[in-house]
Structures are given as C-alpha cells and as structure tokens.
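Dear colleague,

Following up on yesterday's call, I've attached the two folding results inline so they're easy to grep. Please treat them as preliminary; we haven't cross-checked anything against experimental data yet. The first protein's sequence and structure tokens come first.
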Amino acid sequence: MVRAGLTTDRVVVAAADLADVAGFDKVTISALARGFGVKDASLYSHVKNLGDLRTRVALLAAEEFIDRIEAAVAGRAGKDALVAFADAYRTFALEHPGRYAATQYRVAPEIVAEAPAYHRTLRTTSAMLRAYGLTEPDLTDAVRLLRSTFHGFTALEGDGGFEAPRPVQKSWERAVEGLHFLLSNWARATEGA
C-alpha cells in the first residue's frame, strides 16, 4: 500500500476526478481509498466523513467553474458577455459532469458565506446582468432564469435527451439569443406589469 504523498488537496482532486468518471453520487470514501490503494481509515486524517469530502469537492468545483466563467467574460459586456458566460457554463458542465454536479450540492450556509468562489460567482453574474440595466428584484429573477435554463439544457444534453435531427448547438444558440432578447427587454416588460 502506497500512502506517500496523500494530502487533503490530493484526496479532494482525486474525488473530483472520480466524480467526472463515475458520477458525483458514486464518490465514496471506499471508492476513493480503492483508487489510492489504501484502507478507508487512511483517508479520515484528510477528510472528516463523506459529507466533508463532498463539500470539499463542491468548493473545488465551484472555484474551477467560476475561474472558467470569469476568464470567458473578461472584457466583454452585454450579449457578448452573456454568450461567453453561457458557453463557458455549458462547456464546463459537459466536460466535467461530476464536478458540475458537485456545484449543485447543498453546502452549509456558513461554509458558503466563507467561500470566495460563491461570492465571485454572484459578482460575475450580477455584473453581467447589470449591463442589461437590471436591478433588484429583477436581478434575482434573471439570475434564477439563467441558472435554470443553463442547468436544464446541459442536464438534458448530458443525458442524451436531445434526439431530434437538428444540431444541439443550433438550439443552444437560439436559447441564448432568446435570453438576450428577454434580458434586453426586461425593464419594459416589468414596467407594463
């Protein structure tokens, strides 16, 4: 049994890699220990339990996710930023399905409050939407719309749920174009409500 080099960071990255291959729900202490060729007990000096491990994977994934999105939207505004944001979101979700699933894991509010990745995500998303002139409560509603649209689309795509002959990329582009149109006209739509 090789134990040398086992660190918390290495354990968490290995768990994230396992999630991408087998699924986030398949990440267990036992599966991870088998991958390292050690007994389960060896991992407990690096993580407290399965919940702690999954939380750490969620934090790592959130950091990688927002790194990708920030890099994509840097220097862009309006539609260009929305397209870059959407494409980075979709690419991450499809390339890293386990890590993406980890970004949906419910992390305790006190941990979220201390996690820079969650704050960066909120800042980046809000900045992109403010370019459309949105303020609260419209900002919160728009964030929820984008998240549910992107999540739903990528979940269906990742599960092979789009079998029509039309290329999925074309449908994605139309969906993002539709979101841009809606966001561009959001203020007018809410004024009449």
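Below is the second protein, in the same order (sequence, then structure):
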Amino acid sequence: MGSVRKASAWLGLVDDSDDERYYGGYEEDSEEGTEPGDSWVTNPKVRVADEVAQEQGTRIATVTPDGFRDARGIGELFRDGVPVIVNLTSMEPSDAKRVVDFAAGLTFGLRGSIERVANRVFLLTPADYKVVSGEGGRMQGGFFNQS
C-alpha cells in the first residue's frame, strides 16, 4: 500500500482494503525487472525527449536549473552519455556563470563539447556526438540574394 493511500486510510478518507483498481497495476515497493540503469529520478526541471528514445539510447535532456545545486543533475546526465541542453535564463548571473564553468570543466574532463545555442542556453554533447551547423548547407548567392 502506498504512503499516500496509507495516510488517506488512517484519516478515514478512503476504504482500508487493498483495492487493485486504485493502484492500476503499480506497486511502490516492487523492484522486479528493473536494472540499475533503468531508474530515473522524476524532476520537473529535467525532461527527456521520448520513451522510445530512452530505450534506443538516443535521448536529449533539457535542464532549467534554479541554482548551482542543480549542476549535479547536469553532470549525471552528461556522464551517462546523454546530450544536455542547459537553459540558464531563469538564473542569477553569478550562479549562471558558475554553472557554465562547471559545464565547461565537465565537458573538458569527459572529452565532450559545449556550445552556446542562444543567449544563456548551452548544448553539452558527449565525445561520440557531432553537432552539425545548419549554416554550412546554405547556398552562396542563391535565389534570394538580391545584391
């Protein structure tokens, strides 16, 4: 029985019986079939693109930290080989600078790369990823060149 369910039963808000339709097949205490790499911490500041991408190992995480204490989550994702988009627009400038310094050291230590995508938004890519710039494919002197 889950902790919320137990508290509700103790307060008398719900029936004390173990009703399967409440759980929907989910058991809090069951650890069957999970591997150490399968567990993800639910954090509203970190989003992973898609469940299918998680299974295939092709995922990108976006992180919007509130302070420097969130840098650890960035490091753990990057260390696992996940490219990370770090959005620092909601941070104080001093903390944002610390996170960028941390990210630069992280990418240097793990032989990755860091690129500025927009103002106060950075992309951290592991060593086995290559970022392709969209500017290289533009035509020089194309149809819209009116000079």
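For the second protein, one point worth flagging: Strands lie at 46-48, 61-63, 84-87, 113-118, 121-125.

Best wishes,
A.L.
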